Design the sequence.
């Protein structure tokens, strides 16, 4: 780990000015991923700008949109009364992530910015196009049990590790971002990106920008929902496959549905074709199975992760079945 400067500010404008002045600076909030990356030599910022004191910790309902400040701790979001009442799917996704201790420190913005847990990315003696563009991908043809089955490229088959982001993409969240030219908003689904031939870029946040908050529009998906995370142990483990499922049922028919997966792609993976198939249909097991098959179109295994090709559709069907039964 190299020596680095440390500065702290409680003013958004100052934070933006500091980051824009220094190309080798980076923001730090909870630091639950960044400090690991620094210790292992994966990243070496020369300046850390501590943003923990910025006023971005509010959770409030404004015009039927829940606004969650980017510096709110994951545990505070999961325990918030409005989140529990209106977006219990997000609560479950958050509770599935990491450990209780980590959730107390990790922030919403930091959760979005966390990097893949691909072992080759963290081992600086191994080839990894994400860490060192052009060096190759150790996981293709190597140890890839945890890796992606959707949207992969010849450069990288890593997955995004977050559970919270799977819930947010299912809930049609938006991200509010501040930069030197003012604020912009993007759909959560467009925040993270596929690896393509630039796997070093995890998301579409530009250098010098700061995540301010996440907005979630209210919906009727707070009765029949489930977040099903399949993992190697029951806590403190990343997803092999995770499914966020929510149904708005009317007289046994599916009025609205949201489906997203984690542990399967370089970004939280929304199942739009499966959702379109299910809308207006009966909430039956046969329809859930047909939707799951549709969702698996274009899935591809890389050897050790081939088991996900069967695990993923089974997890979709189970998540929908549990969601339906919750009424
Ligand atoms: Fe690196 Fe991506 Fe390959 Fe992992 S899958 S070794 S992160 S390029």
Sequence:
């Amino acid at each position: 780990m190299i020596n680095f400067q440390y500065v702290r500010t409680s003013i958004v404008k100052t934070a933006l000015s500091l980051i824009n002045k220094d190309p080798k600076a980076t923001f730090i909030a909870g630091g639950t991923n960044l400090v690991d990356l620094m210790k292992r030599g994966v990243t070496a910022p020369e300046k850390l700008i501590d943003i923990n004191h910025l006023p971005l910790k509010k959770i409030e309902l404004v015009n039927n949109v829940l606004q969650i400040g980017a510096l709110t701790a994951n545990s505070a979001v999961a325990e918030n009364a409005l989140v529990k009442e209106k977006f219990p799917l997000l609560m479950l996704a958050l509770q599935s992530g990491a450990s209780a201790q980590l959730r107390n420190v990790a922030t919403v913005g930091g959760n979005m910015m966390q990097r893949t847990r691909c072992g080759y990315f963290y081992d600086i003696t191994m080839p990894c196009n994400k860490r060192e563009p052009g060096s190759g991908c150790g996981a293709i043809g190597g140890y890839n049990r945890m890796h992606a089955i959707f949207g992969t490229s010849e450069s990288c088959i890593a997955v995004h590790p977050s559970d919270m982001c799977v819930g947010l993409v299912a809930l049609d969240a938006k991200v509010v971002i501040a930069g030197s030219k003012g604020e912009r908003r993007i759909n959560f689904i467009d925040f993270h990106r596929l690896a393509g031939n630039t796997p070093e870029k995890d998301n579409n946040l530009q250098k010098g920008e700061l995540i301010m908050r996440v907005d979630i529009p209210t919906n009727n998906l707070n009765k029949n929902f489930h977040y099903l995370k399949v993992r190697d142990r029951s806590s403190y483990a990343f997803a092999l496959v995770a499914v966020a499922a929510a149904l708005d049922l009317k007289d046994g028919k599916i009025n609205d549905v949201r489906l997203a997966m984690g542990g399967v792609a370089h970004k939280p993976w929304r199942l739009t074709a499966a959702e379109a198939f299910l809308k207006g249909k009966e909430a039956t097991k046969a329809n859930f199975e047909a939707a799951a098959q549709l969702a698996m179109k274009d899935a591809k295994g890389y050897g050790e992760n081939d088991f996900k090709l069967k695990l993923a559709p089974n997890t979709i069907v189970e998540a929908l079945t549990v969601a339906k039964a919750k009424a």
Remarks:
- The chain has a mean pLDDT of 97.
- Residues 148 and 297 are 14 Å apart (CA to CA).
